[in-house]
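Recall the central idea of this unit: under ordinary conditions, the amino acid sequence of a chain determines the structure it adopts. In this exercise we apply that idea directly, starting from the sequence alone.
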Amino acid sequence: MLAPRPSIQVLASLRLFEEIDAADLALMAASMAVRCYRAAEVIFHQGDPGDTLHVIVSGAVKRVLRSPNGDEAILATLRRQAFFGELALLDHGPQSTTAVALEPTEAISVPRATFMDLIAEHACAREVLLATLAGELRRMTGRVEALYFLDVPGRVAEVLVGLSREHGRSLAPAPATPEGAVRIDGRLTQGDLAAMVNSSRQSVNRALAELAAEGIVRFERDGIVILAPERLASRARL
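Accordingly, the structure predicted from this sequence is:
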């Protein structure tokens, strides 16, 4: 069964395509496909040939490195609007990470030829690509800095600050929710955080308990609420 093509409306709602006119989108859409992934399904493995760009329409994806003994380092979590697989398209190398769906996820598959035409012919798409690559480099530089110079509580705070800025949504003030609070939707386990900060679950659990006891964060069934973003950010500073 052939995967459906993305609609022009869906493409136009995504940052990579939003400034491209409908006629050009229709031509490109003919070569694309909408694919659905189950939670925990691997989209591609590190080392696989890279011939497709993946653009997230809904759901969430983690990019990970895995050791031979099964240990996992989570480099990034991606949600709607984000795309991945672009490095392998640009340098014709293999995939540098493994991509795994964190929850049921829908993504648009863009073949290499269409992607290369897109960035060759549309300056707006090139700008989005370059800004994304620059942002990723800055984020990874910050992550390396945190790993070298911050303790575990500081590294946990740094990850939560990054997630709140990238994926958080502001909450309306309420009796138990102060003004400025931000919610990170999605189930983020202690194991996930441990894989992000290169530490043990026990150490991450202690750091999270400390943040919660101080009223900086609150844990909910399907998310984390940052109650005091400025205090959290201060924990993440060197």
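The first strand starts at residue 33 and ends at 37.
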